[in-house]
Specification:
With 110 residues, the chain is mainly α. 57% of the residues lie in helices and 0% in strands.
């Protein structure tokens, strides 16, 4: 979850998603390694992993998420691509994305 930011170093983060296809898992792990190499904080790396793995966990395609959000598959592809590049959408858009996946966002200041 987005509220579960780790307190340990980003190199210690582990992918806990077991339902993810091996190829998608490798892609996400490679992306997270790049994120860590770029000096992103453990919180940013954990948030990215949580957001990008949520769709796999939900077992939904981009098209299915798009239908639930009332948008297009290409808009979801852009959203996920931008997330991978560290460009976060508005909180409202993330809330809609989370709701389409049967999730919710919990944000905390610690």
């Amino acid at each position: 979850d987005l509220h579960s930011f780790p307190t340990r170093r980003s190199s210690d983060l582990e992918m806990k998603e077991t339902n993810m296809a091996p190829r998608r898992r490798q892609s996400l792990e490679a992306l997270l390694a790049e994120y860590r190499k770029a000096g992103k904080s453990p919180a940013e790396t954990a948030a990215l992993a949580s957001i990008l793995s949520a769709r796999s966990e939900a077992g939904l395609s981009q098209q299915q998420v798009a239908e639930k959000m009332g948008t297009t598959q290409s808009a979801i592809a852009r959203l996920e691509g931008n997330l991978a590049r560290g460009k976060y959408p508005s909180l409202r858009t993330l809330q809609k994305y989370a709701a389409a996946l049967g999730k919710r966002i919990e944000l905390r200041f610690i």
